[in-house]
Predict the 3D structure of the following.
Amino acid sequence: MTTRLERTVTYGILALFTVIALTPVIGILSTAFGSQSSLDTGFSLPKGGLHWSNFADAWSRGHFGTYLGNSVLVTAVVVAATTVLAVLAAYAFGVMRFPGSTVLFHLFVIGLTLPQEALVVPLYFDLRYAELTDSYWALILPQTAQSLAFGVFWMRTYFRGSARSVIEAARIDGANTWTTLWRVLVPMGRPAISTMVVITFMWTWNEFLMALVMVSDEAHRTVPLGLAFFQGQHSSDAALLAAASVLIALPVVVVYVALQRRFIEGMLGGAVKE
Amino acid sequence: MKPTAVTRAYRRRAPGEPRAIGYVYILPALIVYAAFLLYPFGQSVWLSFVHWDGLTVATPAGFDNYRALFSDASLRAPFLHALLLLVFYAALPVAIGLLLAALMSRVRIRGMTFFRTVLFLPQVLALIVVGVAWRSILAPDGLLNDALRAVGLGGLARPWLGDYTWALPAVGVVGTWVGTGLCMVLFLAGAQRIPRELYEAARMDGAGPLREFLTVTLPGLRPQIAVALTLTVVAGLRNFDLIYITTSGGPGNATSVPAYEVYHRAFETNQVGSAAAVGVALTVLIFVLTVTVSRLVEGRRA
């Protein structure tokens, strides 16, 4: 039996770590609503009401309208491409047998631990040679390739687990592999697919190094890149910097809070080997 | 053919039947993956054996770029920093997570969803945003120094990220903040799956809290520990964003890490071959450490 004291200590410690986890988040939020004239580079409390205008200023003065547009475009294409390609490949890996399938699958899984730093240098020179740097392609193609490692791994697990009998029944009804996939397995696999979509969305949205290397013009900057440059130029402008940070973090946080179970599962699942 | 025969034929073959059509399904993903991941990695390996400034003709370097990793202090330091940071990025989060799991394995927690959501939150924020938030905390007039002054320890206050001695641990603390929630969430989930009877049995045998932890909680959490270490070690070694936004490797090169060195050498000082060698060495290090983790923690299973 657990004692009352033990219970209190446990909740006390949980509360302490909750405070630690939230302090930087609340600090940024509070600074984002603060006055722009504050010279404090640390956190500040909003004085004289909430300054919603900081967001408008970050939007226009910091060009975050453009950056958000770029991020939305790049993320949408990467997520869509990853989903389609990963579902197709994982379907084959999950329910079909053919020579070399194990080797090919392992080739994809390697991508889960391969660091970007080992790819980004040649990628930059290749894409520059193809005159694709400073274009959306330079952001979309490498990130799709990197997301595929997780996507193929994650969806194969789903296809392996999806009921044999369902696939058999579809076959008996005369469905070929293509129809079985799109009419039966994909609709059934919506939970697994949406987990993958959410994880890929977050990774792509937050991606920094690839954007830093591939993009030098302002027109193609994504939000994390925009924030880094903004900090370089306006490091004393804590309120605008914080407002921009909130604009960047908000989409992911909203999705995360709404789908937290699926989110955590997916992020942890990516590392669990069979 | 009679329907039954058809049924039987399909049952024997599907799923997992041999189908050359599988290649067609894999091909689109494989093309993108090979062109933008496998092929560049191969190129990195090739580049690591040449001297190249990114403009003129590359010249063969043999193992020069790799030898420099050991002989050149400005290349050795980033790797040492990375290993030291793993204490903050991986060891501390796992240790704190275990401590809490040990405490909480005995209590049924209400509001678990709330705690889990909040504790995991640092994982989903862009590291660039995390860096901006922590710069404010660690700034000379930031929250940490304010707090120190408030409790009469103002003598300890300093510009944390600009201090030669303290910049690396300061960046490390940010990594601890990011990783701890992940470990806690993993271990809490794992701890709640350990059968309560095991604890009762241990207590019947007269086990104290420490023995209980060593004989029940720790073995019960083995798979979760392996996952947590793998995730935090890989994330810690790959980490570029945090360093870039908080210190840019400085002051001097006090917080430089391999990930930052790759960027710095390839795109700022035109030492492309050397940058590629750092990238490849980092890959090998990640690979060796993840294999070691699974050997050590999973024991027999590896």
Q: What stands out?
A: Chain A touches chain B through 100 residues (CB under 8 Å).
